[in-house]
Every structure is written in structure tokens, then in C-alpha cells.
């Protein structure tokens, strides 16, 4: 039996668990507040001190870009690399993934009970590409390709592409969010901070936290909140549809992340489906893509476990 340390590293919290033969041992899962620690090595040392195990492998998923075995948390500034992970855990096989890559490695083994249908479509075949879209603190999307030589989930930074503009309202919203990072990025609209900016735009300058915006959307009496829900849902549908045409995920599109979950009950009401499929002469073609919401709190850990287990079966 192989044992691996797996971890899901966010800007605020880090979750750590042990996996045995590619399966997460949920009973070992522990959450750490990043603010209480100096870095990831300290967190993993504390975690491993409570477990009498020898790690054969280690795989961590970080909320930020990963390149050549080095990752940096976008909203915290921590940097970490494979050598540090190996030194800390003693593992011979180590890997760093972007957090959404980890979700992509988990998608093929998600239970049907953890999937909420958002847009109906065919199930697709096992070999068909899949697409995972994360909408939470930030925004990103990754394709999942199954090939004869293995499963590949390439890193992406889709949230930092330009927000698509089709209408006068889109242009107005794009101009409103552009000053934050020097141009109107997708993440400036489709994220937790993004929905606050959309409400600020929709209300003419009123400020609410994302939680307050969601409460106002649920209440339904605030016209600015309704305008916010409409702009957000249509933007998410349009961006998701563009990404679907880019990657052709006949195996399905999977929405993950806190904002995606919070907005899930309102998406169809406020135009998500129409925006996703509204691609002119390709609108009928879009009916081949099913869209699912994912409800699995351990998906990133599962993805790490499956990925590092596959690496231990072949040379790195």
C-alpha cells in the first residue's frame, strides 16, 4: 500500500489529508488557517507529527499558477516547490498542481450524487474531453483530456482573459471593473469580489459584500440585486459557452467553487442557459454539452490523490 500526503491550499485555509493507494482517507483531513503559520512546510510538519506514516508520495494543489514545479498563491504570496515538498514529507514522488487542475483529475471519479444538473445534455463517452470551471474567490477553467498515454489536465489562467462584451450594458460593466487591474478581466466580474463590483455597477455606487449581495438576490426585492444576478448569470453562461467551444467537452462541463454554488439556484432564472447556448449558427451545436454543478468538498484532495498515485506507477 502506498501512502501520500495530499493538500488543497487556498488563500485563507489549507486542507491536508492522507491518501492510501490513490484514495483519500477522509478521517485524516485537517484544516489549517494560513494566517496562523509561516508557510506550507510548517503546516505539513505539524500535520505529519500527528501521524506515524512514511510518505511514498505527496501532491498539493495551490490557488495560483504553477510552472516547472514551482507554485505561488495568487492572493497570499507564498511560494512553494517540489524540492521543499519532498524535503518536508520525505516523499520520493511529489507534484504541485494548480487547484483547478486537481479538480480536473477528480472529475472522472465523481459520484453521480455529487452532481447537480444545470443544463441537460448527453453523458458523453469516457474518452470525451471534459471542462472544469471554477468560480469562487477567483475564476479559472481547465480541460480534462483522456488519451492512450494517460489523463492530462493542462494548467490555465482563464480568469485573466478579457471579459467578453456584446451589449451596451456589457461595455458599461467592463469599463466599471477595468480600473481594478488595468483592463476588464473575466475574474473581475465572475468571482466573489467580482459580484461585489457588479452590484456596485448595478446600483450606481452602493457597496455590499458578496454575502450581502447574495442575501439581496435571494430576497428579490432589490432591483440592483436582480440586475446583478442577471449580469452575472449571463456573463457566466457566455464565458462558459466560449470555453466549451474552445475545448469541445462532450464529456460535460463541471462548475465548482463557492460563487458557482451560491449562484446555482438562480442561474437558469437569470439567463445562464440562453447565454451558454447563444452562439448564433452554433447554438444548436451547444446542445451537445451538458453542464453540471459539483457538490464534493473533497474533490481537490481526490484529484491530488489520483494524480500522485498515477505518478508512482510510472517514472516522473
Report what the structure shows.
This protein has ten helices and 14 strands. The longest helix has 25 residues, at 223-247. Helix 3 packs across helix 10. The protein has 316 residues and is of the alpha/beta class. The strands form three sheets. It has a six-stranded mixed β-sheet, with helices on both faces. A five-stranded mixed β-sheet has the order 3-2-1-4-8, with helices on both faces. The chain has helices at residues 40-48, 82-89, 99-106, 168-177, 192-203, 210-219, 223-247, 258-263, 272-277, 299-311; strands spanning 3-9, 13-20, 23-33, 57-62, 66-67, 70-72, 79-81, 93-98, 115-119, 130-135, 139-147, 150-152, 253-256, 291-294.
Summarize the structure.
With 316 residues, this protein is an alpha/beta fold. The chain contains ten helices and 14 strands. The chain folds into two domains: 3-105 and 297-311, Nucleotidyltransferase, domain 5, CATH 3.30.420; 111-294, Hexokinase, domain 1.
- Provide the domain count: 2
- Overall shape: it is globular
Give the beta-strand count: 14
Strand line-up in the sheet with most strands: 9-14-13-10-11-12
- Helix content percent band: 25-40%
CATH class of the largest domain: Alpha Beta
Termini gap: 19 Å
How many strands, which pairing sense, and closed or not: the largest β-sheet?
6 strands, mixed
The fold-level CATH name of the largest domain is Hexokinase, domain 1
Global structural class: alpha/beta
What is the number of helical segments per DSSP (H or I, 4+ residues)?
10
- Portion of residues in beta strands equals 15-25%
Q: What is the alpha-carbon Rg in Å? A: 20 Å
Note poorly predicted spans: none
Whole-number mean pLDDT: 93
Please write the string of helix (H) and strand (E) elements. Answer: EEEHEEEEHEHEEEEHHHHEHHEH
Give the name of the CATH architecture of the largest domain. 3-Layer(aba) Sandwich
